[in-house]
Design a protein that fits this description.
Elements: H1 8-20, H2 26-38, H3 44-48, E1 60-67, H4 76-84, E2 95-102, E3 107-114, H5 123-127, E4 133-135, E5 142-144, H6 154-158, E6 165-167, E7 172-174, H7 180-184, H8 190-194, E8 200-209, E9 215-217, E10 237-239, E11 249-250, H9 263-285, H10 291-307, H11 328-350, H12 358-384, H13 393-414, H14 422-437, H15 454-463, H16 467-490, H17 498-518
Length: 537
């Protein structure tokens, strides 16, 4: 009996399926390696190639090496890391993104897998106020100590590669530790072992002594489109045999990403400047009433109380002084912690509850004011130390101290017996601060080359997704900081108008501090473009 002939199309499908079954794709090779391991035929040589055979010696440390030519962007490394470390659904310690470049005639695109770079000078470790990070002296691995973390998230701001991830459920930050326990047992990290093309492996890198005596790795093999490696000295090596275009950039470089508002910090950084400004104004004006001193104390106490809401683990916050040697966060907490009892004592003196002689009273006032100013300086340095362009000292200091001047004058204008000329000073200070803030929009005048540098990112955020908040800030400042105070000082409005002026001034500074957090440039490793979430042409 002659078998019926298959239609030509079905015969072609069968032929292609048979051919596909013989292809040695990365996935097929990985499946075969797994089958051999199940039969006890594991290829130890292939496994050993993923990690060094010996521990790092003096002047060496472990580091990731990523072969860009072998990375296919399959995300097997992401899945393996997630599974082995038991991460939550929305949590990931390893990411896969793209870099692009070249020309229309010769386009360039490359997938990139990234995780913690276990830097030689880690920003996360240097900024942590409770010493919840440690760098292993032998392996160089940067570990996060979960049981020490207070969930302040400052390490997220300090890391230019978006490595530490905040876990809402646990109230702490967590990150990649290069599967340190597996390495100690002679096993490759989950990401390296799961990669079907062996694009990821662990190598030993040499650390060279710099001019200042610190150990520094060779950062010439770091990803060209990544944030500047000179800040934290990352150790990851990205290797490729393909020529890299000069204009290579992250595929998501043009995506606008408004940052979290951090509302408790917004409140702290608006109310503490007000407390300092009112305290200084009370000392300078020497009014008979204690209203201004009480107003400043209430603002400071409220700001400090609300700041605790930012912590995921507030009961561990007593350890915040441990990072005093390196962390500006610790310094701010200690200084404001000393300011509060002094400010409380000063208010008690002004209310007549604590009798003090004239010189002691004056010394208490001066000491309280100086500590407040020092605390504000620490606040400025907290954000300047992140190396983000929008948070540089030249941009942050005028904002924080400008808020102290404006809210101090606005508060003083409401005090009984205050000189009416304060309204003119308030209007002038507000005009100067608004003029200063417009500098953030200067980058819009520059030609858009598609690279979206940090300053342009901030300007586009202020005129794009954050425009309503920016307009509210200007409106409230014009009304509460200029128009109403001017009317009070000129006698065209009754004295009680100073209170709505203070309210609008507070609203304007609140909006400005909200924009301070949301419009900041946020450096990160390359990701994937997502025009549906804030991208622009």
């Amino acid at each position: 009996m002659v078998a019926p002939r298959q239609p030509p199309l079905l015969a072609l499908v069968d032929e292609l399926l048979a051919e596909q079954g013989q292809l040695q794709t990365p996935v097929v090779r990985a499946a075969e390696a797994y089958d051999r391991a199940q039969r006890g035929q594991f290829n130890s040589k292939t496994h050993a190639d993923l990690i060094p055979l010996t521990k790092p010696g003096p002047g060496e440390q472990y580091a990731f090496q990523v072969d860009l030519d072998s990375c296919t962007g399959c995300k097997a490394c992401v899945v393996a890391c997630h599974s082995l470390n038991g991460l939550d659904d929305e949590e990931a310690w390893r990411d896969v993104g793209f870099v692009v470049g070249g020309s229309r005639a010769a386009p360039y695109q490359q997938t990139v897998t990234t995780a913690c770079h276990h830097c030689a000078d880690p920003g996360c470790l240097n900024g942590c106020p409770v010493l919840a990070y440690e760098k292993d002296p032998v392996t160089g691995i940067v570990r996060h100590l979960d049981d020490q973390c207070i969930g302040c998230q400052y390490c997220i701001l300090k890391c230019p590669y978006d490595v530490p991830k905040y876990n809402d459920r646990l109230g702490i930050v967590r990150k990649c530790d290069m599967c340190q326990q597996r390495l100690g047992a002679g096993e490759a990290p989950a990401c390296a072992q799961a990669c079907p093309t062996h694009a990821i492996k662990i190598i030993k890198v040499e650390l060279h002594v710099s001019v200042g005596g610190a150990l520094r790795p060779d950062t010439s093999k770091f990803l060209p489109s990544a944030p500047d490696p000179s800040y934290t000295q990352p150790t990851t090596h990205y290797i490729t045999k393909r020529p890299t275009p000069v204009d290579v950039r992250s595929a998501d470089a043009a995506v606008l990403r408004p940052q979290p508002p951090h509302w408790p910090l917004v409140a702290l950084l608006m109310l503490m400047p007000m407390a300092v400004g009112c305290g200084v104004a009370d000392k300078i004006l020497d009014l008979r009433t204690s209203a201004l001193a009480v107003c400043g104390w209430v603002a400071g106490a409220t700001g400090l109380a609300l700041a605790g809401l930012h912590l995921g683990q507030p009961l561990r916050a007593w350890r915040v002084f441990l990072g005093l040697r390196k962390s500006w966060f610790s310094r701010e907490a200690v200084v404001f912690g000393l300011w509060f009892p002094l400010a409380s004592a000063y208010v008690a003196v002004r209310l007549g509850w604590l009798p003090l002689a004239g010189q002691l009273r004056s010394g208490l006032a001066v000491g309280t004011a100086c500590l407040g100013v020092l605390g504000l300086f620490c606040s400025v340095m907290i954000y300047a130390d992140t190396h983000r362009v929008f948070w540089r000292v030249a941009n942050t200091a005028p904002r924080f101290f400008g808020t102290a001047v404006i809210l101090g004058l606005a508060g003083a204008l409401t005090a009984p017996g205050a000189p009416l000329a304060l309204g003119y000073l308030l209007a002038g200070a507000t005009i100067l601060k608004l003029a200063f803030e417009t500098k953030a929009l200067a980058a819009l005048a520059e030609e858009d080359d598609g690279m979206s540098p940090p300053a342009r990112q901030t300007a586009l955020l202020l005129t794009g997704p954050l425009r309503p908040a920016n307009e509210l800030r200007v409106f409230a400042a014009l009304l509460g900081g200029i128009l109403l105070p001017f009317m009070v000082s000129s006698g065209t409005a009754p004295l009680w108008v100073a209170w709505p002026a203070l309210a609008f001034a507070l609203l304007g500074e609140l909006a400005e501090r909200y924009l301070f957090f949301r419009a900041v440039d946020a450096p990160k490793m390359p990701g994937q473009p997502d025009p549906g979430r804030g991208g622009h042409a």
